[in-house]
């Protein structure tokens, strides 16, 4: 699992177009480096994802460097602020136990609810919850979405004091 925040928790990706660009860049870069995304959620000042390890271990720093470079350049172009630092740091957790994996899948799929942006995870367009609801078997979907996350320690103190318009 990976969590990354923007520098000073600034909302560089506020708005539907910027969130879509960040979400698309995450998915495209993950595919390029063969990281199989299992859950993802992007917000104006941070993101989370859970992915299966790629066939070529050790590519996470390269993958994230490319993602951050590409999206920082885009954000700075939108705002006319060439050279501004956009991303701060990332935290990674190597999941080795099924319960840990399930808890983090649940956490990421439900993260927009956690931040008060939507009441139902599948209603947030810049995360995998809707995709997961459509693709997973009903029993697996229910298992994951009911999985407890209260004991997780995930860096997620990113205040989101606005609700994006999903259009």
Layout of strands and helices, then pairs:
Blueprint: E1 2-6, H1 16-32, E2 36-42, E3 46-52, H2 60-79, E4 87-92, H3 98-109, H4 111-114, H5 129-135, H6 138-145
Task: Outline the structure in words.
The protein is α+β, with helices and mostly antiparallel strands. It has one domain (about 1-145): Alpha-Beta Plaits, CATH 3.30.70.1290. Helices cover about 40% and strands about 15% of the residues. The protein has 6 helices and 4 strands. It has helices at about 15-30, 60-80, 100-110, 110-115, 130-135, 140-145; strands at about 1-5, 35-40, 45-50, 85-90. The chain has a 4-stranded antiparallel β-sheet with strand order 2-3-1-4, sandwiched between helices. Helix 1 runs antiparallel to helix 2 (about 60-80). The longest helix is centred in the middle third of the chain and has 20 residues, at about 60-80. About 30% of the residues are buried. The model has no long low-confidence stretch (mean pLDDT about 90).
The parts where pLDDT drops under 50 for at least 5 residues are none
Domain module count: 1
- What is the helix content? 40-55%
Kindly report how far apart the N and C termini lie. 29 Å
Order of SSEs: EHEEHEHHHH
Assembly annotation: single chain
CATH architecture level-2 label: 2-Layer Sandwich
How would you sum up the global shape? Answer: globular
């Amino acid at each position: 699992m990976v969590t990354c925040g923007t520098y000073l928790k600034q909302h560089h990706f506020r708005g539907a177009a910027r969130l879509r660009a960040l979400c698309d860049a995450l998915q495209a870069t993950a595919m390029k480096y063969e990281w199989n995304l299992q859950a993802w959620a992007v917000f104006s000042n941070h993101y989370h994802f859970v992915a299966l390890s790629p066939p070529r271990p050790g590519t996470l720093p390269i993958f994230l460097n490319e993602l951050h470079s590409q999206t920082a350049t885009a954000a700075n172009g939108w705002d006319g602020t060439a050279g501004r630092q956009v991303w701060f740091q990332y935290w990674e957790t190597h999941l080795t136990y099924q319960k840990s994996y399930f808890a983090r899948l649940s956490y990421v799929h439900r993260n927009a609810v956690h931040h008060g942006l939507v009441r139902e995870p599948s209603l947030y367009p810049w995360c995998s919850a809707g995709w997961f609801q459509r693709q997973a078997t009903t029993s697996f979907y229910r298992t994951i979405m009911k999985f407890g996350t209260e004991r997780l320690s995930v860096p997620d103190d990113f205040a989101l004091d606005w609700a994006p318009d999903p259009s």
